[in-house]
Amino acid sequence: MDHREFSGMKSPSLRLPAPAKLNLTLRITGRRADGYHNLQTVFQFVDWCDWLEFRANASGELALREPLAGVPAEQNLIIRAAQLLKDYAGVSAGADIILEKNLPMGGGLGGGSSDAATTLVALNRLWALGLDRETLMSVGLRLGADVPIFVFGHAAWAEGVGERLQIVELPEPWYVIVVPPCHVSTAEIFGAPDLTRDNEPITIADFLAGSHENHCLDAVVRRYPVVAEAMRALAKYSPDVRLTGTGACVYSVHGSEEEARASHEALAGAWTAMVASGRNLSPLYEALSGLSSCI
Ligand SMILES: C[C@](O)(CO)[C@H](O)COP(=O)(O)OP(=O)(O)OC[C@H]1O[C@@H](n2ccc(N)nc2=O)[C@H](O)[C@@H]1O
Ligand SMILES: Nc1ncnc2c1ncn2[C@@H]1O[C@H](COP(=O)(O)OP(=O)(O)OP(=O)(O)O)[C@@H](O)[C@H]1O
């Protein structure tokens, strides 16, 4: 922690990452009465991250610097997460937050959800609330189905709407992630009339044996053909190419950094792409483990 002067008092600041996730498979097994879908998915983190810096203040204000174009601060998941935690725990302090946004929005990488989760974890420390991880996960679920996994912080098999999590230890491959030039709305895909919603459930063992389907894929490429184009481009360099979440990002799986970098170089002229390494432990908790105490 870095101690600086703020509002006349010594206020500690905390700079933490908000990593992207990949869905290594995404199965839709039913639709609930509230319109949400029951899923089976596997989450793994990568070392491609937004970065957030937090400092508590005594004024009670929640302020965000470097706001996102097109997203009013009160709708930003960072401010929404901070406000929710403040209300939940009855906190009088506020926070000044600086966002370094690196992850594409609407990419299926969960960037907004990850920002929200990092905010909950960081402010729980800075405001000295002492809430446990499970409580933060349930607070986070009120912001979105993808928030709990980022608070959970370990690669997991997920069921329910994505909040019932079971740790899995997976290989940590290298990925090439392509960001196609389109934004896919998660609500549009889950609302698509042509989405198959009653797929058979599988087991974790089926996934580990190679079942990697994403049941959103057909609905996504029908609406965004450029996503299929990106997959074809990646398929020239890897036999294993997948869609994350409801897209738009697609990725290829590689056994070595060298292979991933060579594929990236071959693609880079035509596509926006990133090389990233798979992480079972979230970079958020990797960073926190270097600090004095952890939630
Ligand atoms: C596609 C995934 O990214 C896979 O990890 C997530 O399921 C989406 O999580 P998210 O973006 O946090 O989703 P939310 O913000 O909670 O919901 C966005 C919209 O997606 C739909 N939605 C989301 C999750 C889910 N299990 N079933 C749904 O039907 C709902 O229509 C909702 O209005
Ligand atoms: N801090 C934030 N970062 C990104 N998007 C945000 C943020 N706060 C609010 N949003 C809104 O949420 C929308 C979805 O953003 P996000 O980057 O999480 O999409 P995504 O990666 O497709 O998410 P998911 O995989 O969870 O569906 C954005 O288009 C934006 O309007």
From TrEMBL:
EC number: 2.7.1.148
Record: active site: 21, 146
EC top class, as a word: transferase
Keywords: ATP-binding, Isoprene biosynthesis, Kinase, Nucleotide-binding, Transferase
SUPFAM superfamilies, per the entry: GHMP Kinase, C-terminal domain, Ribosomal protein S5 domain 2-like
Single Gene Ontology MF annotation: 4-(cytidine 5'-diphospho)-2-C-methyl-D-erythritol kinase activity
Transmembrane feature ranges: none
Annotated ATP binding sites: 104-114
GO biological process: one example: terpenoid biosynthetic process
HAMAP family: IspE
Family from the record: Belongs to the GHMP kinase family. IspE subfamily.
Protein name: 4-diphosphocytidyl-2-C-methyl-D-erythritol kinase
Organism: Methylococcus geothermalis
